[in-house]
Amino acid sequence: MLELAEELARWSAQGRDFAVATVAGVRGSAPRPLGAALAVAADGTAAGSVSGGCVEGAVYELCREALTSGRPVLERFGYSAEDAFAVGLTCGGELDVLVAPADPVTTVAVRAAADGASVALVRALTGPPGLLGRALLVTQDGTYEGGLGGGAALDATAAREARALLHAGRNGLVEVGADGARCGETVRLLVECRVPPPRMLVFGAIDFAAALVRAGKFLGHHVTVCDARPVFATRARFPEADEVVADWPHRYLERQELDARTVVCVLTHDAKFDIPLLERALRLPIAYVGAMGSRRTHAARLARLREAGLTDAELARLHSPIGLDLGARTAEETALSIAAEIVAVRHGASGAPLTTGTMPIHRDARSLARR
């Protein structure tokens, strides 16, 4: 639901009633991830998608029914061999879809998310009667409003679980005891998180950086270009960047509040900039650190970083030479290879051709925590 926050906030401001179908479980190969949503307004207007087309018609009708009945439902859609193009996922996977009319808690959640706040929306998928679709809104500091209908202990436990996912910036499924404890009857919860875009810090205002800025924006990052040379670090050279900063890279990095989703790309291949920057970046709990340069440059860089005191474990986090082996020549091809490596690292994938692999194309999106 929160992926449609801006649109739903507009509908809410206009006083329009609506229902939302949200992907609440994925098994096997499915085209849309946990949290993907299709919203339907009372006038029939639709926004979003839960399946890329396979089951949209059936889900649309469920939303219309929910608007009439006022009751949430949880439906499962899977591959239909008899009529694969009617109601079924032709890719062979299964989706659980929670369909619910908007309520006061979800309305506050979409408005907060649309305003740029970091929020988590928790909704019950299983448990005692009456819990399905009940919602809890959790903020980054752990405060919450609404309720799952199972009592204060359940709400407090759900809020703690949601806050952990919120700090990681990802959606997930969790299972907790119906009384808030981790025993006896359980409740399965869908947790949707909306956080600011992940950051990409590009150090080195060179031509390759302009192409990487475009790739980073395409992937949904908030992109900053930083270079110690003011003549190169200009808005005119990088109009698509969110920020352009003239400062020594390591000093700029030290002032930033970064999270586990942050990506650092070092394109300077100049030791006086690279070494103090990488010395700090490789000790931060961030998602990716890559550095441009030849294999000879990389070997010399590793030697200097070891002299600076970095451990083998810290150096193992460095992706250098940066990018996947695509045979890239141009700035755009190089940016593509770097972006591809960032995506592969994020998902723990190999980056190998799909034709040579045996793993499912779409990884199992379930993050059900069994505790």
TrEMBL record:
The lineage of its organism: Bacteria, Bacillati, Actinomycetota, Actinomycetes, Kitasatosporales. Residues 200-342 form the XdhC Rossmann domain. It holds the Pfam family XdhC_C. This is XdhC family protein. It comes from Streptomyces luteosporeus. Residues 11-78, 116-176 form the XdhC- CoxI domain.
